[in-house]
Design a protein that fits this description.
This protein is mostly helical. It contains 3 helices and no strands.
Amino acid sequence: MTVWIPLVAVTAFWLLVGAGGPLFVPAGPNKGIIQTMIVLTAVCCHLFWIVVYLHQLNPLIGPQIPVRTIMWIHEKWGDAAGPLVSD
């Protein structure tokens, strides 16, 4: 349930920037370009944020190897840095 709070809040913020930002651009020869840049900035920032946020919800964590297996690998393959456990 708490996942929805930041999703809605940040989406509302970037929607406000993307939809409301172009309304405040003063008249001039580059008004259309500036409005397009504001909208594209809001879309890209929101897309980047949502990809990073959703990626953190389900992180890719490698397999956890038991210490016994690590010691066996160390015994069979050796280790250039030295032993894992000091005697």
